[in-house]
Amino acid sequence: MKEHEATKEAAFLMTECKAERFGFHALGSRKIVGGFDGGELTSDAGGLLLREVEQRTGMLEGFAGCFRDHRKAEAVEHPVADLVAQRVYGLCLGYEDLNDHDELRLDPLMAVLVGKRDPAGEGRRRRRDRGKALAGKSTLNRLELTPAGMGDRYKKIAVDAEAVDRWMVDVFLDAHAEAPDEIWLDLDATDDPIHGAQEGRFFHGYYGHYCYLPLYVFCGQFLLGARLRSSDRDGAAGALEELQRIVGQIRSRWPEVRIGIRGDSGFCRDPIMDWCEGHGVDYVLGLARNTRLVAQIEPELEQARQAYEQSGEAARLYTEFPYRTRTSWSRERRVIAKAEHLAKGRNPRFVVTSLPVDALQPGPVYEDLYCARGDMENRIKEQQLALFADRTSAATMRANQLRLYFSSVAYMLMHALRRLGLAGTELARAQCDTIRLKVLKIGARVHVTVRRVWIHMAT
Known about the structure:
By secondary structure, this protein is α+β, with helices and mostly antiparallel strands.
């Protein structure tokens, strides 16, 4: 009987109020009534912090300057700077697909972030496909798909990849009031699985699937380079060219800074080490073990085994020796070895370095320098997973490289928020997805008046 009365009450409310009110089961003596009359709501009010970062750094404006717009100016409703900002803010806020922007284009808060002076989109609603504050998925899609030759009728916004590469390094340089004494550049490659017939599709035996093999260059938490590559190549392919470009740009601004590079054994290649040695760049690189290397540290491995058997805990010793491969290296180099014994058995590890013997002892070289590069893997996971660098489903490598750039800029903006806005807080070292959930995803009502944009957040 009570259910029947509740149904009648709901039907009455819907009929009487023309579906503007909805009745639900009561809470004790209180009726529960819902309606779609809350005004313009957003779930991304914390995104205002991202806009503050942009206002202080000009990061998105600088990135947009790397595009060339060949459209007719009088026919343009959404400038390149707006399209770029909309795409990057969307990634930061968790909207990974272009389809999401068909709804986001109506969000007045997103319009505020992008900088639209008319966030509510009024004044142009008479035209069928216009009058929305922001661009839809089709316009953003054309931004990504412009070919290199500019021969397409509808896709006329081209990105200058070399300009983007230079700009990414400039962001790092501009973030420092004065040059540091020493910096270390970390290189790493990762797999980016692909599931279609994209250009550059190859099977990678190590990862066991079809993928791209993007190359990243970080300095601490700063991203300096992101290069999309097909996976039919050595993991270090193109790394030397990236180093030459980045190191040259850094030294043109900071001629006295000491520069070192770190990478796993995939980057232990003679051309890279030879170039570093000839240009005053230090290196600490992983070295894949082989029987010759293991034979060099048999006494230390035996000592580690005995120590493990006595204590029952992991034991490790460090040593070093000069070493040269039989054919692939052009000279003898300093190799540092970790002779370690664990519960699963012995675990020998090796690195090769240009650091002189009197500069740093073997243990600190391995533990303090080489192992520190592991933090870079967390940064790559942030970009790949939290900021959707793995959404490389476009048909061409050029378009997918641009998607990688968008994700890279989203990471750079989030890192700037972490560095400038969250310093000294419990989120100062939080990952991007944590910052998104705890800081950016805040519900609010947006009220636009002639003089103000009110963002009413929960009390």
